[in-house]
Structure formats: structure tokens, C-alpha cells
UniProtKB/TrEMBL annotation:
Protein name in UniProt: glucan endo-1,3-beta-D-glucosidase
Catalytic activity field: Hydrolysis of (1->3)-beta-D-glucosidic linkages in (1->3)-beta-D-glucans
Pfam families on file: Glyco_hydro_17
Keywords recorded for this protein, A-Z: Glycosidase, Hydrolase, Signal
Family: Belongs to the glycosyl hydrolase 17 family.
Name of the top EC class for this enzyme: hydrolase
Signal peptide feature range: 1-23
EC number: 3.2.1.39
Gene Ontology BP term (one): carbohydrate metabolic process
Organism: Apostasia shenzhenica
Molecular function terms, GO-annotated: glucan endo-1,3-beta-D-glucosidase activity
Length: 398
């Protein structure tokens, strides 16, 4: 470089600059700090069009779903909402074995909906590592690679980010936060994924549930620590950092595990967090009051756009779990009561949102739906004739 003549160096730079420019474009799957999971394992929740109204009313822009359901992709078109779709565990094995299938999947479920539907990310698999299916664990990395290869082929890597959400089952120990490491049994699957994510600058995605941690050990955990309420806090003797809430501590535990495994620069993103408002008899912490406290304080915490004690400059982003109570979810009673909203669109408890069912827009939408079956509004056009105007233009206020 130093040997090259001035002129050659100049031209060289000119040619390099646009390339450098492109290389520096970082794809961001999550542009705000407060997103939400739109889980749909229910037979009584509002459809995508009403959900768009609810989300806009609640000023929530970042949304994550667990599949790539076409009614949702269609319903979100033109809404301005930013959507992360899921390649569900059911597909991970076949996507691992076939890059053609991966390409087809990305074409059908991502590319063909762009740009009207702002798909900003693909979550490949959900809580695969540390689960019971070892073949699925083995297949995850191959699936991630094939989906990424498809994005490269379709020139979508600057628009769509890949992630793969993990549960706490990937960690051997998370107390105190600085001592957290990945389980040995997980590392063989985790390492190649983290190597790859480091290269493509994808974050480490983790699901964080102080509710579950507290519920598993209520004798030793102060519920105020889990709920972001005033409490003595937890001191980490190794780092000398103080934690006044478990949410931050769990995120820093993930940072510690990443560092111990050699991934110092990787960002941690929360793909799920929430608190159940009701549950089985032994799920005593699943109350409406606790769920309200957690979600109210969490919302305040995320809106501060702050980092954690270990990473004060890295703003924490989280997708809340979940938008609605999902009546068809299996498992303990709590699983069906994570929603900020009930199935009818009304709020589960007050954390500052107003819900759908009482709103003017919603009742108007319902009556429109009844009368037209298409999501349109009847309006007199410039020609004086009565016509249909797509609802999208009508309520998009930006
Ligand atoms: C994943 O794909 C690779 C390459 O096709 C194959 O060798 C491997 O057996 C697959 N693993 C699973 C668990 O399907």
C-alpha cells in the first residue's frame, strides 16, 4: 500500500470506497427496543388485519412470529411494521439437507412478500439447542447456513438478518452472572453457529424468563428482584458489578458465557421475555398483579435505551412474550396466559396500552369487515362515485 504511486493509490481508493461502503451496511433485524411476539396458537384471537390496528395503536413496530403464515405476511403488507418470521423446528431438518429447499423457502416466505411486507429477519428454529431432539440439534447449523446461502443468492443479506433463539437450557450455570458458561454438551453445536454469526454480524438471541427462574426457586429469589421492584440487589463478586434486577443479570450471564467461549464482540438480543398473569395452582407467581408489574417495569426499562452493567453502551432490545393469551398452547396453565392482551383484544392489565375491543377503529373495522368482507372502506371518490378505498391508505398516519 505504501509503495503504490499517488495516482494509483487514488484510483484504488475510489474503487474500494463503494465496496467498503457496502461492507459497512449492517443489517438490523430489530430497529427499536420494544418488540412483541405475535404467537398464534389459539383459535379465538383477532386476525392479522386487526392485529395491525392494535399494534399501531400501541405504537409497537417490531413484531416476531413463529412461522411464516401467509395470512400474516399479507395482513402486514403496507403497514410499516417490521417483521421477523420463523423457520419453525419442523422444517429445520429438511432445510439442513437441501439448499434447494432453503432457497425455495426463502423465496416463498420472504422474498415474494418484499418490500410491501417489511420482513427484517428470519429466526431459524426455536430453542433447538438443549432440547430433547439431538438430530434437530445437529441439523440446526446446516439449516442456518443454507438459509443464509439463499439470502446471499437472492441478494437479501442487507435487508434480512438471521437469528436463532435459545432458551436458558444452553447454559450450565448463570449465578452469579459472570460465572455463566455454555453446557459442554451444547458447545459442539453452539460453536459453529457462533463462529458463523460472528462473521455475518448476527446477534446472540436468548429467551429470558425471570418468572420461570423465580417460580423454580421462590425460597432463594427475591420476587422484587425478578419484578424490577426496589430490592437489595445482587452483587457479583468477580466483576464487582451490582444487579438490581434479574432481567439485566440474565443478559449479562449470556455475555459472560459468550466471552468465556471466545465471542467478545457479539451482541445479545432478547427474543422472548414475559410474565404469566395466571397459571396452575402451583404457579403462585403467575398473577395479574405480578404480570402487570413485570411488564410495566420492563417497558419503562426498555424505553430508557440503556445497556446492562456489563455492557453499559449496548442498548438492550427485547421482544415481549406475548401479544395475546393463547388458549391452545399445551403445557402448564401459565403458557396460556402470557398475553398483554386477551383474545378479544382488550388489555390483560393496564401498562399503558388501551387495547382493541373498546376502540372506535376496531368496531369500525368489524362493521366494515361484515359489510364488505374485504378490508376496504366505502368512500366517495373524486368522480363523485361511491367506491372502495383500501384500509391501508386510510389508517396509515405517517
Ligand atoms: C444435515 O445435512 C448434512 C448435509 O446434507 C447431512 O450430512 C447431515 O446428515 C444432516 N443432519 C441431519 C441431522 O439431518
Amino acid at each position: 500500500m505504501a509503495r503504490s504511486s499517488g495516482a494509483a493509490g487514488f484510483w484504488c481508493l475510489l474503487f474500494l470506497l463503494p465496496l467498503l461502503g457496502n461492507g459497512l451496511v449492517m443489517v438490523e433485524g430489530f430497529t427499536g427496543t420494544y418488540g412483541i411476539n405475535y404467537g398464534r396458537i389459539a383459535d379465538n384471537i383477532p386476525g392479522p388485519e386487526e392485529v395491525v390496528l392494535l399494534l399501531k395503536k400501541s405504537k409497537i413496530k417490531n413484531v416476531k412470529i413463529y412461522d411464516a403464515d401467509h395470512s400474516v405476511l399479507k395482513g402486514f403488507a403496507g403497514s410499516g411494521l417490521e417483521l421477523v418470521v420463523g423457520l419453525s423446528n419442523d422444517y429445520v431438518k429438511e432445510i439442513n439437507t437441501s439448499s434447494d429447499r432453503a432457497l425455495q423457502w426463502v423465496k416463498d416466505n420472504v422474498q415474494s412478500w418484499l418490500p410491501d411486507t417489511h420482513i427484517t429477519g428470519i429466526a431459524v428454529g426455536n430453542e433447538v439447542l438443549g432440547g430433547a431432539d439431538h438430530e434437530l440439534e445437529e441439523a440446526l447449523f446446516g439449516a442456518i447456513k443454507n438459509v443464509y446461502k439463499a439470502l446471499v443468492q437472492l441478494q437479501l443479506t442487507d435487508i434480512v438478518q438471521i437469528s436463532s433463539p435459545h432458551s436458558q437450557a444452553v447454559f450450565a450455570n448463570s449465578y452469579p452472572p459472570s460465572s455463566c458458561v455454555f453446557k459442554d454438551s451444547i458447545l459442539q453445536y453452539m460453536k459453529p453457529i457462533l463462529d458463523f454469526f460472528s462473521k455475518i454480524e448476527s446477534p446472540f438471541s436468548i429467551n429470558v424468563y425471570p418468572f420461570l427462574a423465580y417460580q423454580s426457586d421462590p425460597e432463594h429469589i427475591d420476587i422484587n428482584y425478578a419484578l424490577f421492584q426496589p430490592n437489595p440487589g445482587v452483587h457479583d463478586p468477580k466483576t464487582n458489578l451490582n444487579y438490581d434486577n434479574m432481567f439485566d443479570a440474565e443478559i449479562d450471564a449470556a455475555y459472560a458465557a459468550l466471552e468465556a467461549a471466545g465471542y467478545i464482540g457479539m451482541e445479545v438480543e432478547v427474543t422472548e421475555t414475559g410474565w404469566a398473569s395466571s397459571g396452575d395452582e402451583d404457579e403462585t407467581a403467575a398473577t395479574s398483579q405480578n404480570a402487570r408489574t413485570y411488564n410495566y417495569n420492563l417497558r419503562k426499562r426498555l424505553f430508557k435505551r440503556k445497556g446492562t452493567p456489563r455492557r453499559p453502551k449496548t442498548v438492550i432490545k427485547a421482544y415481549i412474550f406475548a401479544l395475546f393469551n393463547e388458549d391452545s398452547k399445551p403445557g402448564p396453565g401459565s403458557e396460556r396466559h402470557y398475553g398483554l392482551f386477551k383474545a378479544d383484544g382488550s388489555i390483560s392489565y393496564d401498562i399503558g396500552f388501551s387495547g382493541l375491543s373498546t376502540s372506535h377503529a376496531s368496531s369500525l373495522l368489524r362493521s366494515l369487515k361484515r359489510s364488505n368482507s374485504k378490508i376496504c372502506r366505502r368512500e366517495f371518490g373524486k368522480d363523485g362515485k361511491l367506491g372502495f378505498v383500501p384500509l391501508w391508505d386510510w389508517y396509515t398516519e405517517e
